Amino acid sequence: MSARPAPLPRLAAAVADLTGAAAFWPRAALATLRGPPLLDTALLTLRLVVTSVPVVFVVTFFSGAMLTVQAAASLSPFGGGALAGIAVGFGGVREVFPLLAAASVAARSGAEIASQLATMKATRQTDALEVMGLDPLRLLVGPRMVAAVLGTPVCVLVGCAAGMLGAQAIGVWQLGLDRGAMWNNLWSGVVAADLVVGAVKGVVLGFMLGAISAREGLAAGPGARGVGRATNRAVIRALVAVSAASLALSSAIYGRLA
Amino acid sequence: MSEQRAPAPIADEPAVALSGVCKRFGDREVIHDVTLAIPRGRITALLGPSGSGKSTLLGFVTGLVRPNAGQVRVLGEDVFALPRRGLLALRRRMGMLFQDNALFQSLSVVDNVAFPLLRVARRPAPEAKSRALALLEQVGLGGLHDRRPDQLSGGQQKRVALARALALEPELVLFDEPTSGLDPQTSAAIDALLRETQGRLGTTFIAITHDIVSAAAIADHVGLLVDGRLRAFGTRGAVWASTDPAVRAFLDRVPAGAGEAPAAPAPPPTGSGDLEL
Ligand SMILES: Nc1ncnc2c1ncn2[C@@H]1O[C@H](COP(=O)(O)OP(=O)(O)OP(=O)(O)O)[C@@H](O)[C@H]1O
Ligand SMILES: [Mg+2]
């Protein structure tokens, strides 16, 4: 589009778009509850976990290592390595690893959901379903929502484990910390409840990134360009929403412990 | 069949009846007050140049496009007065071929045809598959059933789409540009297949097309849409003999017997068409 619309209509369009996005969430939730096809759901859940886990693992492993280097450097006047392990342990498991895991799922699987649905929309496969008397929301969105809601917590837990491994690896190999002591320090700040909270965060963030990706896919414009835009938009919106929700959940759950 | 006009029994009710239908996109009115009745058990072609509103008209029939005014009755039901459940049930009585086929790209050819049997009619898998194979045979595509849709030529994809549209034994089959993008020989073969299939099943077929040659080859009845207005509607002979200048302007543009060039892509709705770099 070479001629950009005037600011006011663009604002109105943006508001309409966001309203449409918000209105989609309850519909996505309903579609999910109305019994999506089982086989599709199982395969898509498996696919989401299998394709996202490598990304999640790498991203959180490196982040755990990075956090440890920084923590050890800045905490060295106060006892260095031991404190670094403790700080990275609970800071990572409670905040950084779950967020990065969900972001990685959004980038890997959210983008895939958006691009698949956008392609189906652009090539009118979704209209073909409608004309057969089938509901694309139940058939296409339901299984993907379930996959995101079940698969993301798994990825979050994998991310927590990988982050700890990254911290341990760099602590032992580069910083020369004692293997056993480092591992104990990492776990000393973490309680079982943190992993439960992580899983709950995974469910919430999974729902959000699933709903956002599905909606942007189904709202795609025509042609290859529509597919590209929808995918891009899905990833950006999912990242923003997931970060904001992650903060909101943390301040709701841990905020009052301060 | 008699030509009487009096209150028709249900069986004589038109397959599709539009009355006073209008549609605006933004402030552009693309369909102006269209009223027409499409008879059952025939092939009706709705002709018109690109952008004249043909696909929009078909959208009314499937319930995918809601008109701003007027009534749309399909197979005896008022499409836009139906609750969602009723609309889905009505759609199960129709089949549709989309302009670019809309085949499920992730499924093989046979699975595309079996899909409505499995998911809509809930047939057991072996039965759905053997029925799908039989349908593929009927449209002349035996042997290709394990391919992906993107491994087929345009004409072959049309045949798959036809088999899929016929899978649920619909009472009404809709075709959006069945021959666009095909070479003249392939177009003629598809036209022959449509005629043969309709003759065998006796189902109501509605085809929208800008291909006059194709309309002449298949249609019992013809409607002509120009700029969102219905300029003519009747038997093919009557429309072909029309002296209305608007009708002649469209019909006479193509020399009889010549195949029309493939559909030119529609111009973009806004902008000057320059690349956004
Ligand atoms: N969703 C939409 N939003 C805005 N304008 C639209 C929309 N759909 C169709 N139009 C416009 O309505 C007019 C009629 O479109 P339609 O697709 O019904 O034409 P058509 O006769 O099928 O054309 P073609 O032969 O090119 O397929 C066109 O000018 C088109 O730009
Ligand atoms: Mg069209």
List the helices and strands and how they pair.
The complex is a heterodimer of chains A (258) and B (277).
Chain A: H1 7-33, H2 38-75, H3 81-122, H4 125-131, H5 136-173, H6 179-188, H7 192-218, H8 223-253
Chain B: E1 16-25, E2 28-38, E3 43-47, H1 54-62, E4 69-74, E5 77-78, H2 84-91, E6 94-97, H3 109-119, H4 125-138, H5 154-166, E7 172-176, H6 184-201, E8 204-209, H7 212-218, E9 221-226, E10 229-235, H8 236-240, H9 245-251
Parallel strand pairs in B: 3-8, 3-9, 6-7, 7-8
Antiparallel strand pairs in B: 1-2, 1-4, 4-5, 9-10
The site of magnesium ion has 4 residues of chain B, from α1.
Which terms summarize this structure?
heterodimer, A: 258 residues, mainly alpha, B: 277 residues, alpha/beta, Rossmann fold, 4-stranded antiparallel sheet, disordered N terminus, binds adenosine-5'-triphosphate, binds magnesium ion
CATH superfamily of the largest domain in chain B: P-loop containing nucleotide triphosphate hydrolases
Report strand % of chain A.
under 5%
Spatial separation of the terminal alpha carbons of chain A: 51 Å
Based on CA inertia axes, which overall geometry of chain B fits?
globular
Q: Count every helix of chain B, treating DSSP H or I runs of 4 or more residues as helices.
A: 9
Largest interface: A-B, 16 and 27 residues
Strand content of chain B: 15-25%
CA gyration radius of chain B, whole angstroms: 19 Å
The Cα radius of gyration of chain A reads 21 Å
H/E element order of chain A: HHHHHHHH
Helix-and-strand structural type of chain A: mainly alpha
Q: Number of domains in the coordinates of chain B? A: 2
| Measured distance between first and last alpha carbons of chain B | 62 Å
Number of strands of chain A: 0
Q: How many separate structural domains of chain A? A: 1
